Amino acid sequence: MSASIHPPASADDPRRDSLIEYPSRFPIKVMGARADGFVHALTTIARQFDPGFDPATSVELRESKAGNYLGVTLTVTATSREQLDDLYRALSGHPMVKVVL
Predict the structure, then answer these.
(1) Taking 90 as the threshold, does the pLDDT of residue 11 lie above it?
(2) Per-domain boundaries in the chain
(3) More confident residue, 3 or 46
(4) What residues are paired with 7 via a beta bridge?
(5) pLDDT (tens digit, 9 = 90+) per residue, 81-101?
(6) Of 4, 32, 64, 74, which has the most beta carbons under 10 Å away?
(7) Which residues, 6+ apart, have CB-to-CB distance to 80 below 8 Å?
């Protein structure tokens, strides 16, 4: 058997609990009522955590069948687990957001 080329992560290494390699492009799905300002609010939050976030290339929209809800996929550049956790908390705490996946 050959030896592993990657040393095992130590107990204090934050990568130990993550399957994500940083930095990487990471999609976050957000659902909310279809309302004026919803997408703008989400992109404003995304920019707080990813200064290079570009809504023109990093946002996908999907309306519900009845058109009452909007699914928004924000693809951010993830740089750490802490950054993603903080972004999820900020999105989840917004009053227009129903679900963050």
Answers:
(1) no
(2) 21-100
(3) 46
(4) none
(5) 999 999 999 999 999 999 999
(6) 74
(7) 14, 22
Burial of 83 (0-12, 13-18, 19+ CB in 10 A): middle
Q: pTM (2 decimals)?
A: 0.81
Q: How many helices (H) and strands (E) does the chain have?
A: 3, 4
Fold entry, domain 21-100: Alpha-Beta Plaits (3.30.70)
Strands (E) located in the chain = 24-33, 59-63, 69-78, 97-100
Q: Give me the residues paired with residue 99 across strands.
A: 31
Integer Cα distance of 46 and 82 in angstroms: 14
State percent of the chain over pLDDT 90.
80
Cis peptide before 7 (omega within 30 of 0): no
